[in-house]
Design brief:
Protein name: BTB domain-containing protein
Oligomer: single chain
Order of helices and strands: HEEEHHEHHHHHHEEEHHHHHH
Number of helices: 15
Strand order of the largest sheet: 1-3-2-4
Biased composition (Low complexity): 1-15
Number of strands: 7
Largest sheet: 4 strands, mixed
Radius of gyration: 32 Å
Region (Disordered): 1-34
Strand content: 5-15%
Biased composition (Pro residues): 20-34
Length: 374
């Protein structure tokens, strides 16, 4: 009898496999993520709950205990939100809790440290990404004037944080552009917009992209109409470039006109010069660009910088019939080089309007910066 029981137990034991493990009970739910609580005011009457982050792969719910009166005095936006006829207003009973799921906890915490006079916890040199997040919040709640004691140092830190576009990446460059916009550094903002203009491409849907990042995907870049301004300015610059290039081709295609600049040359030599440059121009276009340039700016999807780089290769390698004609007749000697770091003429660069300059001037009055960020 005992042998039979032992045999049965052995049989059951040997048949047990991980696959045979019963499923978890539906009643066993994961424990809620830990809550990160920060007390900004021991007597605070308001709890702010912010969205989740995943540092180290762990989700944290942020709960900030604050003084509602401090928020009310600091921001007219908070005053209307917390003390107006909205759902965030103080309830008649129970805890006063307001959820702000769209606000990033880390930069929000820095803002709360500032307005609650916890200055020892304010970073002296925040990263470009963190400063971008701070300024998104100060813009949303009209708080940028609180940053005046740190604005100059923060702007300098942002400019020195991987200034090279290839090293810092397109997102970081857009962060810097927005930082300069919000703090009022007009010089840095202008340089940033020019760089975006030079390196912006257009996708199949006609949407602007900056090194693969769609403008629509960026939370903030600058003025709301910046994307439209860049697209308009891009078309203006492309039109000017195409006009210059295509006029060179059209002049040399004319049967009754020669583009040769040697006035006393034989007609046959002038014609040979014209044909040599035209043929070389055609061949170089096919080799470096795959086709002749289009006539409309809207047909060019590549960036201005890339377009100019290819044209620079084309025009710098043209040949004429001899050294005399080369020095006088080659297009590269008749017009400026098509350099990829094009210095825009005033009438070419129209992205920044007077209203943009007025906004940055108003920001400088709040932050204490100069137009150059000093």
């Amino acid at each position: 009898m005992s042998d039979s029981r032992a045999s049965t137990r052995a049989s059951v034991s040997s048949s047990f496999t991980p696959e045979a493990t019963p499923p978890h009970s539906p009643d066993l739910v994961p424990s809620p993520p830990p809550i990160k609580r920060v007390e900004f005011d021991a007597d605070g009457d308001l709890l702010l709950r912010l969205g989740s982050e995943t540092p180290d792969g762990i989700e944290y719910e942020h709960e900030f205990k604050v003084c509602s009166a401090t928020l009310r005095r600091s921001s007219v936006v908070w005053k209307r939100m917390l003390f107006g006829p909205w759902m965030e207003a103080k309830p008649t009973g129970g805890k006063w809790t307001v959820s702000l799921p769209d606000d990033k906890p880390k930069p929000f915490e820095i803002i709360l440290n500032i307005i609650h006079s916890r200055f020892q916890l304010v970073p002296r040199s925040p990263s470009r990404r963190l400063l971008y997040g701070i300024l998104v919040i100060t813009n949303k709640y009209d708080l940028v004037h609180f940053l005046q004691p740190w604005a100059k140092d923060w702007m300098q830190a942002a400019k020195s944080d991987s200034p090279n576009l290839r090293l810092s990446g397109p997102c970081s460059h857009m962060w810097l552009t927005y930082i300069s916009w919000e703090l009022g550094d007009e010089e840095t903002f202008t340089k940033g917009v020019k760089k975006i203009l030079l390196h912006t491409t257009v996708d199949e849907d006609g949407e602007l992209t900056f090194y693969g990042i769609h403008f629509a995907e960026m939370e903030c870049v600058g003025p709301p109409d910046l994307g439209d301004r860049i697209l308009e300015n891009r078309n203006l610059v492309m039109t000017a470039i195409l006009r210059s290039v295509n006029s060179e081709i059209v002049r040399r295609l004319a049967l009754n006109v020669t583009a040769c600049h040697i006035q006393d040359a034989l007609p046959s030599d002038q014609k040979a010069c014209n044909n040599a440059i035209l043929g070389c121009l055609w061949r170089q276009m096919i080799h470096y660009r795959g086709a002749l340039p289009p006539t409309s700016a809207t047909e060019v999807s590549e960036s201005i910088s890339s377009f100019l780089s290819s044209l620079d290769l084309v025009f710098s390698r043209l040949q004429s019939i001899d050294c005399v004609h080369s020095s006088a007749c080659l297009p590269v000697n008749q017009a400026p080089n098509f350099a990829p770091d094009l210095e825009f003429e005033t009438e070419w660069f129209t992205c920044i309007k007077d209203s943009h300059k007025e906004y940055m001037q108003a920001q400088r009055l709040k932050t204490g910066l100069s137009a150059s960020g000093e």
